[in-house]
Every structure is written in C-alpha cells, then in structure tokens.
C-alpha cells in the first residue's frame, strides 16, 4: 500500500481560511493559462460494472472516482450484449429485445456524481453479421445506425460518442478496411447520433498506434478514411508508447520524429496527420497507459515511473493544441500476468503511487540554470483549489511559499529555484492528500 508521508506541521482551519482570503486576489498569477478545455478520465468497464471484494457496491466505486477527480469515463456499449436478439424496432430503446441493464446502473451513477461519459459503440451481434464474431461489421449500413439511435435516446444526457474500437487492427474490425469502417459503421452512426441530438459530438478513428501483422498503421488508416469520405466531429486515437519491454522507456514529454507509429511522444505527428487528412479537427486520446513491474517483469516500468508518466502525459495533453481528452486505461490491474497491469490498484487492490499522481498530477516542464518550472493540477471537486507546494529539504517536507489557489480548472504553474535531485510534491489541503514526490532531472 502506498502511503503519503505526514508533514511536520498541520495548518489550522482558521489560518487556512485567512490564507485563502489573502491569496485569492493574487491567484491568477500562479495559475496556468492555456488548454483549460482538457479533460482527464479513465476506462475500466469490468471494474466499474462488477467491482471487487473490497469495492463490491457501485456507490463505493463511484466514490473512488470522486476521490480521484475523474472528469469523464470511457465506457463500451456492447451492441452484441445489449441486442442478443434481433429487435423488431431497433431505433426504439424500449424494444423488448434490448437489455440495457449492464449499462443503466453505471451510467445513472455517473450522471448522479457529475461524471461525464464517452460511450464507445462496439461489437456486432451474430444476427447482424451472418453469425460471425463481434469484430465483424454488420451486413447492413443501417444496423449500427439504428442501435446508435436507440442508445442516444436511452442516454440523452450523454453527448460524447465514439464509433468502434481500434478498427485499424483485425481484433477490432475484421477485415480492417478503412472503407468498410466508414461505410458500414462510422458515417451511418454519426448521421444517426446527430439526428437524435445536434449537440452529440462523435469521434471517429479510435486507432491503435502502430502497424503489425494484423493491423494497419493509424497513418494508413487515416488515408483510407479520407478516401472513403469519413464524417465525424473529432478524431480519437490510442497513443500507447512504442516501448513495452526491457530497456529505456519512451516518456510522454519526449518529442520523437514522425514515423508511422503515433505515440504520446510523437503527438505532434498525430495532429499533423489529422490536419492533413481531415482539416483542423480536435483529437481525443481515448486509451493510454503504462504497465507496471511488478507484476509484469518483461513489459512494465516501476510503479514510481508509472506515476511520473501519468503526470507527464497530463501535462503533454494540457499543452497540446486541439487535444481535448485523455483517458487512462484501467483503474485496477487485470488479474492475469502478462495482460494489462496499468491500473492505479494492483489486482489485489493495493494502491499504487499512480492513484495519487492521477489525483494530483505534477510534472517538470522546464529548467534553466537553477530555475525549474513545475506544472500541476488538483483534480477532486471543481473550481479553484487551495494547495501547498512542498520541497524535501534535509529529511523533511517544507512548504515553498504560502498557500496558493489554482485556476478554475485546478491547474497551476510554479517557478522554483531548484536543480537536479530536488524533490517536490503537492499537498491538497481540502483532501489532506499528497502527490508522489517528483524528482527534478
């Protein structure tokens, strides 16, 4: 279990209130000023739906999302699970063939807690694709569109949608043809969702980052989508790192040259490719993560590095033009070794440092001589948040200046005089929680 270290002196409530009054007028000077649109969220369908021994109730899991400060959840609406039988009126969410029970409670809970949702439509029922697997497209271009209509009517408060998952690789769509994706899935569903509510924003692409024996590169897939005259509002992509093995890992704040592998470290290349093919559309990053070692000895980074990269990825998205969304994949590790160990909890529900790094991301964004610039965010709740920046000095955590207040979305930047080897952390006063220590490099 990861525990934050206790600070030597607690701030009394009266002193805190007085400090907040003093700093409120000067808060703008300490806040970051760009990309306030950026939203940060998570995806873990199994954990959210089923839970665990320690978090058996949905309300407990939703409380964990509140503690983390999750703004949005990506969730897969499995068409093949919801419509196991062919509906007689497929555009009607009340058709008796539909079973929405797996999604209803979760989505109602998210709405009640003020957490947004991105709903990804995926999985063709056998009756719609000739008894094939769910990664096969439906035979009729209207089939998914009618299901999308029913889903949008069922959940009218949801306005963020994504069509399919990783259609550039055969595990997502077989055959992985961009023309098939556009004509059978994307364009019909986009038209349907816009018809139900013009406020619906629909993401197309949802591409995996690289070419493999069974996948087209996202670059090639985008070209094919353009030739097929794809229609969508934002482009979505999964910028996983090219490093999943031994050696030096790719970091989110790196800037790699453009290749056909589009990762967080080549985010500028993703934006360039989207603009070249579709104009200046905005981008959602709907899956991103680093696995940890333990448990994955061959493909994971240390829990400390995972926590650092959570903060660095948040900063990269904040500073990137036209990138509005970053989804961290998994809250809890999958129990099978070798699968996804990218959660904020281990499979045995031990908290990793990344839990607190998601709640209180902190990143080093520049250093010149003895001056270092730090960026961070306090995520729980909404509105300006009081915090203290602390530095490790002579074996103790000491405050750097007085209590400060973040911007309206919780962001801040700070310049400190500190060189390599210095350690900093955020103390969220209202949560009484601390970020993992950030080592200045």
Features:
6-stranded antiparallel beta sheet; single chain; 441 residues; 8-stranded parallel beta barrel; alpha/beta; disordered N terminus
Structural description of this entry:
This protein has 441 residues and is of the alpha/beta class. Helix content is 29%, strand content 21%. It has 12 helices and 17 strands. It has an 8-stranded parallel barrel with strand order 1-2-3-4-5-6-7-8, surrounded by 4 helices. Helix 9 (218-227) packs parallel to helix 10 (267-278) and helix 11 packs parallel to helix 12. The longest helix is centred in the middle third of the chain and has 19 residues, at 178-196. The chain is globular and about 70 Å long. The relative contact order is 0.13. The model is unreliable at 1-14 and 21-35 (pLDDT under 50).
As an assembly, this protein is: single chain
Global structural class: alpha/beta
Mean pLDDT rating: 92
Spatial order of strands in the largest sheet: 1-2-3-4-5-6-7-8
Helix content: 25-40%
Please tell me how large the radius of gyration is: 22 Å
Query: Total helix count?
Result: 12
Largest sheet: 8 strands, parallel, barrel
The percent range for strand residues is 15-25%
Which word captures the global form?
A: globular
CA(first)-CA(last) distance: 26 Å
Uncertain segments of ≥5 residues (pLDDT<50)?
A: 1-14, 21-35
How many runs of DSSP E, i.e. beta strands?
A: 17
């Amino acid at each position: 279990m990861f525990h934050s270290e206790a600070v030597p002196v607690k701030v009394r409530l009266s002193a805190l209130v007085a400090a907040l009054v003093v700093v409120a007028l000067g808060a703008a000077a300490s806040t970051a000023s760009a990309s306030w649109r950026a939203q940060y969220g998570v995806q873990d369908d199994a954990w959210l739906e089923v839970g665990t021994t320690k978090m058996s109730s949905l309300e407990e899991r939703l409380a964990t999302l509140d503690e983390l400060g999750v703004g949005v959840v990506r969730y897969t609406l499995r068409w093949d699970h919801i419509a196991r039988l062919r509906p007689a009126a497929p555009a009607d969410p009340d058709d008796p063939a539909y079973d929405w029970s797996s999604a209803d409670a979760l989505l109602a809970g998210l709405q009640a807690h003020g957490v947004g949702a991105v709903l990804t439509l995926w999985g063709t029922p056998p009756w719609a694709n000739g008894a094939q697997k769910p990664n096969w497209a439906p035979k009729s271009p209207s089939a998914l569109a009618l299901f999308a209509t029913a889903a949008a009517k069922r959940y009218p408060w949801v306005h963020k949608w994504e069509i399919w998952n990783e259609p550039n690789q055969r595990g997502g769509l077989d055959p992985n043809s961009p023309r098939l994706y556009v004509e059978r899935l994307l364009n019909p569903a986009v038209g349907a969702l816009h018809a139900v509510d013009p406020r619906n924003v629909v993401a197309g692409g949802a591409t995996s980052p690289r070419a493999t024996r069974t996948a087209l590169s996202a670059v090639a897939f985008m070209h094919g989508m353009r030739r097929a005259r794809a229609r969508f509002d934002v482009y979505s992509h999964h910028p996983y790192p090219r490093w999943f093995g031994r050696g030096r890992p790719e970091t989110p704040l790196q800037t790699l040259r453009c290749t056909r592998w589009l990762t967080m470290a080549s985010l500028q290349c993703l934006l360039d490719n989207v603009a070249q093919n579709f104009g200046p559309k905005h981008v959602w990053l709907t899956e991103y993560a680093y696995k940890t070692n333990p448990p994955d000895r061959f493909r994971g980074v240390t829990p400390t590095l995972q926590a650092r990269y959570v903060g660095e990825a948040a900063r990269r998205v904040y500073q990137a033009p036209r990138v509005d969304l970053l989804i961290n994949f998994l809250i809890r590790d999958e129990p099978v070794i070798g699968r996804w160990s990218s959660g904020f909890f281990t499979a045995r529900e031990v908290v990793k440092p990344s839990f607190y790094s998601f709640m209180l991301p902190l990143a080093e964004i520049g250093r010149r001589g003895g001056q270092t610039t730090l960026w961070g965010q306090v995520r729980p709740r909404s509105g300006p948040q009081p915090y203290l920046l602390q530095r490790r000095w002579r074996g103790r955590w000491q405050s750097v200046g007085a209590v400060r207040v973040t911007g309206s979305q919780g962001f801040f930047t700070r310049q400190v005089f500190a060189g390599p080897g210095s350690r900093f952390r955020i103390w969220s006063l209202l949560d009484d929680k601390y970020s993992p220590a950030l080592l200045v490099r």
